[in-house]
Specification:
Chain lengths: 349, 395, 77
């Protein structure tokens, strides 16, 4: 007689199994997946309760809520994956308001047929990123779409944070005379992703810079509470973010190409493809604008933090009714850094 | 990066600029046309005009093969995907060029046409190998720089006996375009477009050599200086042209000696000659029909000629009435002369091809130079347009 | 279609292919348009093909010309 344990429930087959429609059906299969994968990895008291939402006490003061969807392809890339990217991205959006992130929510749209081994890798990566950041993922959702209607997995994360008193950070607060700083090298993430695109295939040791920045931001606003603007230059890169600030604040900007930190390989990859590093995506960098008098102090604080070691002052805010972002080229002339048109296509011409 | 960074040195740029300033003759204007789209882009991106004295005028020529591609040919390419259901492989540059009916390759792709961007002709061949049940057409464009790679893939397709691969050939020739401009009424008779000299294309010349330009220098008595791709190359070439004009010389000089010889790349030229032959005439956007200015696939390789395989007929389509691309391509007008520049016609919503390609005169000016049109001032009160290169702003 | 860049040959795989390096980024490209390519050579690369070899001696000469152009001017500005 076989000795099968009485309450035996066959565990989810993470090695060879694939997502199927029952995983989104609301029934036992879904509950098991949530239990064995999400709750097990994200491990906190809220998920352990098993409710649809997470209840917490509202902290005093002003709160921030931010949300981001992640559709990156490929899902796994040098330096990270869609999982940690989705955690970092939303933590950073919350941090850009000057806030301390408190909680995260994560919802998944899974494509039928997606390997559970890959899903496990992604979820473990998210758990790791969240733990490192000290921010729990307290609630979430799972849906499954038919094969062909999704790209493996799409992840949406939402984050809550609390803004310390006296901190006013917003894209419309830049004033002439303010200094513009960047926390490190630009273009790393975009180049890392592009190197995997089939028809571009170049070999590089560049890794995505995906990282959580709230620790750096906390140090920055403690030392320089007068910071006016913060933003992480994701899609569209540094050039786009500066234009956003210029438009919101009704000012112009003047930056110096020679001051902008760019890794040699990122420069080279952009040369190859005819791209401008100014518009290539970043996932672990921020732009800060502060009163000119505080720039030196802010720079020192940033450089003293692991996530800001390569920080630099790259320019200043100027009065300009046309809201142009101008750049002094390393060559010595001047040019406009305009809004990005469409998506940067690698040109050959 | 070696052979790149040294050729972008700002200090050297300023000293060459001073030399140009010292050698130009007062009261004389120097009207120089740069032919290569890469040069148009470099001049805009590095703000070279800022460094030149006011009597040196740079005129943008039709050196951008995307800009001179007529609407009708793009319509043909789109139809290959939408009607013939072929996979159309194209360089990224053509994707946003506006064609008929408000379409572009990009828009057709959004509507479901199988149009794929490739970095290299070899990628198009691979697509054909990976999709044996589908027809794959490579939308081949470009001047002499880009033609040899197309020749190679056609020969490879023959060697592989690939039955589902063909090329829609739109390769054009540099010397013919230069001749056409020099022959235009504005230049020849009316003298409304003073053209004193040419900056010859960089990479086209690595293939064809400096020899083909000797004809222009001789016949039209205009100096030609072939310039490398980097901003210092362009500045040095301008200096060399100024000197030739001051001396009354009309010679072909080569600034790009590190990559251009008189004969060019013989192997590449031979490969091209094996696969392609001259078309009697070809329409260039903005220039009209230009004789002996483009290539078609020879009979020996007819099996890979998309025009024959799909029975493509060409229909000429006129440009939007407000579009000045034609005049701009001939150097007769500047982007700012066009009524729709920067308003109706922007890189986001281009009306004509000069605005689509980053090397088109309009796109280059819009992206890099238009702030100078409005004479903005910095917080320090110094205007942005006086042209003096500035040092660092921050301490 | 002029975007072409000078890159260093690191590996020649067979008659027609090899790897080039630009600032630490490597790519496989075709050498079919050239003959006698060796590691250490610099070539001009365009759309995945090497178009021409770069002559280092001429490059030095050109750079020297740039420096000379900036020499003392004959007359005051």
């Amino acid at each position: 007689m076989s000795a099968v344990k009485k309450d035996y429930v066959r565990p989810v087959d993470f090695r060879h199994g694939r997502v199927d429609m029952t995983h989104g059906g609301g029934g036992r299969a879904m509950a098991q997946l949530i239990d064995e994968l999400f709750a097990a990895n994200f491990a906190n008291e809220w998920l352990a309760q098993g409710n649809d939402g997470a209840v917490f006490s509202a902290p005093a003061g002003r709160m921030v809520i931010a949300t981001d969807s992640h559709v990156v392809s490929p899902l796994f890339f040098p330096g990270g994956d869609i999982g940690c990217l989705s955690v970092h991205g939303t933590l950073n959006d919350v941090a850009m308001a000057g806030a301390r992130p408190l909680y995260l929510a994560a919802s998944f749209i899974l494509e039928e047929g997606f390997p559970l081994a890959d899903l496990k890798r992604i979820v473990e990566s998210m758990a790791h990123a969240a733990r490192d950041a000290g921010v729990p993922i307290v609630t979430g959702d799972t849906k499954v779409v038919e094969q062909g209607k999704g790209d493996g997995v799409f992840i949406t994360t939402t984050g809550f944070g609390v803004v310390p008193p006296g901190i006013e950070i917003s894209g419309d607060r830049a004033r002439p005379g303010d200094a513009i700083l960047v926390s490190g090298t630009i273009g790393d993430h975009g180049v890392a992703i592009m190197s995997l695109r089939e028809n571009l295939s170049f070999e590089t040791t560049i890794e995505s810079d995906t990282a959580a920045l709230h620790g750096l931001v906390a140090a920055m606003i403690e030392a320089v509470p007068s910071i006016r603007c913060l933003r992480d230059p994701t899609r569209g890169g540094l050039g786009t973010t500066l234009n956003e600030f210029a438009r919101q604040s009704g000012v112009g900007m003047l930056i110096r190409e020679a001051a902008i930190p760019v890794k040699a390989q990122v420069n080279a990859a952009c040369e190859f493809l005819g791209l401008d590093p100014l518009y290539v995506a970043n996932e672990g960098k921020l732009i800060a604008i502060c009163p000119g008098a505080d720039a030196g102090r802010l720079l020192a604080v940033m450089r003293g933090h692991a996530r800001g070691a390569d920080a630099a002052i790259i320019g200043e805010v100027v009065a300009d009714a046309h809201r142009f972002v101008q750049m002094e080229t390393a060559f010595g002339g001047r040019r406009v850094v305009d809004w990005l048109t469409g998506e940067q296509l690698p040109r050959i011409c | 990066m070696k052979y790149i960074d040294e050729f972008r040195d700002g200090e050297l740029a300023r000293s060459i600029a001073r030399r140009i300033g010292a050698e130009v003759q007062a009261g004389r204007s120097y009207n120089l046309m740069e032919f290569c789209g890469g040069h148009t882009h470099a001049i805009s991106r590095y703000g070279i005009k800022d460094l030149l004295p006011s009597n040196v005028n740079m005129i943008h020529g039709p050196g951008c093969p995307v800009c001179v591609l007529p609407i009708g040919r793009i319509d043909n390419a789109i139809r290959l995907a939408t009607e013939n259901k072929a996979i159309v492989a194209t360089y990224a540059d053509t994707m946003r060029v506006p064609a008929s009916g408000g379409l572009s390759l990009m828009k057709a792709k959004a509507r479901g046409a199988d149009i794929r961007m490739v970095y290299s002709a070899a990628d198009a061949l691979k697509i054909a190998q990976d999709n044996p049940a589908r027809e794959v057409v490579f939308f081949a464009i470009g001047f002499e720089t880009t033609t040899p790679p197309t020749a190679i893939v056609i020969r490879q397709a023959r060697a592989l006996d690939l039955r589902n691969f063909s090329v829609f050939c739109n390769h054009v020739l540099t010397p013919s375009a230069i001749t056409h401009i020099l022959e235009s009424p504005e230049v020849r008779e009316l003298g409304t477009v003073p053209l004193d000299g040419f900056i010859g294309p960089a990479h086209v010349s690595t293939v064809i050599g400096s020899q083909p330009y000797e004809y222009f220098a001789e016949e039209y008595q205009r100096p030609v200086v072939i310039a490398g791709f980097e901003p210092l190359d362009v500045m040095q070439a301008i200096l060399m042209l100024v000197r030739q004009l001051n001396d009354g010389r009309a010679e072909v000089e080569n600034e790009f000696t590190r990559a251009v010889t008189r004969e060019g790349n013989e192997k590449a030229k031979a490969l091209v000659a094996e696969v392609f032959e001259l078309r009697r005439s070809f329409e260039w956007r903005g220039l009209g029909e230009v004789p002996y200015s483009a290539l078609r696939i020879k009979d020996a390789y007819a099996g890979f000629d998309a025009e024959r395989r799909f029975g493509i007929t060409y229909r000429s389509v006129a440009d939007n009435k407000a579009c000045e691309c034609g005049a701009i391509l001939r150097g007769v007008r500047k982007p700012t002369d066009c009524k729709v520049f920067g308003t109706v016609c922007t890189p986001e919503n281009p009306i004509g091809s000069c605005m689509v390609s980053s090397e088109g005169a309009c796109a280059a000016h819009y992206t890099y130079g238009r702030f100078k049109d409005v004479g903005i001032r910095t917080a320090a009160g110094t205007p942005a347009r006086d042209g003096t290169p500035r040092g660092a702003v921050m301490p | 279609m002029c975007l072409a860049i000078p890159a260093r040959v690191v590996e020649v795989l067979n008659e027609s292919e090899g790897t080039i390096d630009l600032g630490g980024v490597r790519k496989r490209i075709s050498f079919e348009l050239l003959t006698d390519v060796a590691p250490g050579d610099y070539v001009i690369v365009h759309v995945g093909y090497a178009l021409q070899k770069l002559d280092p001696a001429e490059a030095e000469r050109t750079l020297a010309l740039f420096a000379e152009a900036g020499g003392p001017t004959a007359e005051a500005a």
